[in-house]
Amino acid sequence: MRVVLRGGPAGPAWPDGIRVATFRPEDAPALHALLEHGYRRGGGSVDRFEAWLPAMTGDAEFDPSLWFLAWEEDRPAGAALCWASAFVKDLVVHESWRRHGLGEALLRRVLAEFAARGAATVELKVHAANTGAVRLYERLGFVVVERIPAG
Asked: Of 3, 27, 40, 148, which sees the most CB atoms within 10 A?
């Protein structure tokens, strides 16, 4: 899916009790645990920590200022991990924070950041069966640009 960035998108409205920060190396274990938890029923996957961390942080597209982590006290509630090419690699929200606007706030933060950096579009991939995510993306202006058959 892709959204064309026109003008300045509306900024995020963070749920009460949430603070947002960009990635720091000491966040890696908690972030990885959130990703494992978020993908445990499908919709994506994450490699074991020892392989995941160097693969992600060693990627040419990695920029820690494009990894947004939403925290409830000392627990990660959600995260948006983006590549420098204006691609949303992972968007995950712990189920205890779903339907509170956290996913939308994270995505709005991403769109605002890429707009500020001069990106024309932002892209992501999503499983078509993940209807909640698809609805969120469509609400924020994303459109389908390619369908990849499951297989």
From this structure: 3
